[in-house]
Amino acid sequence: MLRRLFALGLPATTLALGLLGAAALPRPAAAQDCPRGTLDARYCDRDGDLVADAPTNPRDLADPSTLIFAYTPVEDPAVYRAVWQPFMDHLARATGKRVQFFAVQSNAAQIEAMRAGRLHIAGFNTGSNPLAVNCAGFVPFAMMASRNNAFGYEMEIIVPASSTAQRIEDLRGRTIAFTSETSNSGFKAPSALLASQFNMRAGRDFTAAFSGRHDNSILGVANRDYDAGAIANSVLTRMVARNVVRPEQIRSIFRSQTFPTTGYGHAHNLNPALAERIRNAFFDFNWEGTALLAEFQKSEPPQEKFMPITYREHWEVIRQIDAAMEVSYACR
Q1: In this structure, which CATH number among 3.40.30.10, 3.30.1300.10, 3.40.630.30, 3.40.190.10 belongs to the domain 153-259?
Q2: Which positions carry the signal peptide feature in this UniProt record (predicted)?
Q3: Distance between CA 191 and CA 188 in Å, rounded?
């Protein structure tokens, strides 16, 4: 299906961010001897791995006394602050730094914070990873997986259980909730699917609403605020496990192929020794008996450890979807 999807010309979508003034930001990299591909002008990619290299000038390296960590935007950040506390304690011991949780309200705010140097370690959702890599110098290196390295989630289009809609074509003339334009499963993948497979476009065949987060879309569909919603089923699984929604409130009418889930990484300009300690902390964290395991093992497949990933390999399908939708990684 995706082979056909990528071959089709789809409406242009530009995801550009209004960011802080240049005075607050690192200096652009010199043009000479600085291949960068689609990276912003301030970054270099000399090794061809598609992510920003660490600065070569020691004065441009960051070694903060407090590390700021952010998880992808969720409906109730206080819940995830507690979930992540055992890991942040471990990270503090591994690095010798204070670690502070930053509750972000949107994908754009999270990307802006890393670009401006206010965010050092983060989990960016699937769709916003390319923007974070290209605009903010994000270097992803880990993803949650099961003990046998199974990972990922599917995009589903859900409707209220009592809805008369039985298939995607039945959503013509109705309101479909998306999350945000940076989200893969919450916007980009379903938009490409609707246009290529069903010739359905927002504003012409259905009304698009933006809820801001998967949690909001799921609750909105469950409460019949939206006729349908495009969501990541891993979020739905965890919400059902926490009794936030009941399975009988929602019905799925479409499920996609499997996509990579949240990518974890650090800012490109951290001191290399510090960056290495951060990476090691992810991979030697003991999940047993922690709130992190209690929360994420509810996913399917269960998320029980951090596995190594590369942006070049694991985000290839997401970059293909972005290309099909003519998404721009330009920052301004």
Answers
A1: 3.40.190.10
A2: 1-31
A3: 5
